[in-house]
Specification:
Two copies of one chain form a homodimer.
Chain A lengths: L5 H12 L5 H8 L3 H13 L3 E8 L8 E9 L4 H11 L5 E8 L4 E7 L2 H12 L5 E14 L6
Antiparallel strand pairs in A: 2-4, 2-5, 3-4
Chain B binds a DNA duplex through helix 3.
GO molecular function (chains A, B): sequence-specific DNA binding
Pfam family, one (chains A, B): HTH_AsnC-type
Keywords (chains A, B): DNA-binding, Transcription, Transcription regulation
Chain lengths: 152, 152
DNA sequence: CTTGAAAAGAACTGCCT
DNA sequence: AGGCAGTTCTTTTCAAG
């Protein structure tokens, strides 16, 4: 774990929301010179605070209008079973995120599809046939809001 | 919805995973010249395919070792109730994502906390006291894997 | 830490095939 | 639509105070 002062936290917060902000622009907003801000960003990068820079896509514009969250409870879950499941689920292109969780479910999947009938196809032919699948629960996303998080 | 050819899809896929790639570097990888690649990126941007550039954070390194997914069923859910709930939930700093969903739950929250006892505090004092909260289900994240998605 | 400047690289523009 | 050559801009990096 890394210790950050208030300025560092402001930088991290800003870059988490908009990674295109330059060191100069950020510095101006925080009352720092361009090199000073740049060095801080560099230090944070070397400390491994940033895991990657991603571009968020507008999936609707790309023809994927349906996002569904699946909670999956495995029927049998030895070590082999988990690995089999994970390997099989990784082969489904419509699966965006695989989360291994502890609680009522064993896995949570974020699945995108073109429409509901496309999702039905994925669910019946790909999800329900996964090795070891027990109970499956689905929640269809209506809207999603991202918040700054605890650093905000 | 927008029509993309194979090259466009390769560009979108690449930028979704690494937004720092320059038009020149991307073009080389795809057998395109720098201006050709740049013009495609520009066209995609103007079409609104990209929604924003975010920097993924290593939350563990920042001292937030616990991520929990909450499914929340409201007890009462008229229009006012939904708005009250959303406003109240937006005031909790530990909440990273708020998803309005259709299915067994009404909302799904992604919550981060420093550790489990910190999470307990958030759950008892912030979540359980939200207006209209009925049933709450929690799944603690063990690991998370992002996949390229249907464009990959 | 700052200012100032140089170097590198990326973004953008016309023109041509 | 793609490529080439060139210009302009930003970002990065290095001085020196």
């Amino acid at each position: 774990m890394i210790a950050l002062d208030e300025t560092d936290r402001a930088i991290v917060r800003a870059l988490a929301e908009d990674s295109t902000a330059s060191a100069g622009a950020l510095g101006r907003r925080l009352g720092l010179s361009q090199p000073a801000c740049w060095r801080r960003i560099q230090r944070l990068r070397e400390a491994g605070v940033f895991r990657g820079a991603r571009l968020d896509l507008d999936l609707e514009k790309l023809g994927f209008g349906v996002t569904v969250f699946l909670g999956i409870k495995l029927a049998t879950k030895g070590r082999v079973s988990l690995e089999d499941f994970e390997r099989a689920v990784s082969a489904i292109p419509e699966v965006q995120i695989v989360e291994h969780v502890l609680g009522p479910f064993d896995y949570r999947l974020r699945v995108v599809a073109r429409d509901l009938s496309d999702f039905e196809r994925v669910l019946r032919r790909r999800i329900m046939t996964l090795p070891g699948v027990g109970n499956v629960e689905a929640n269809v996303m209506l809207s999603e809001e991202r918040r700054p998080g605890p650093l905000g």
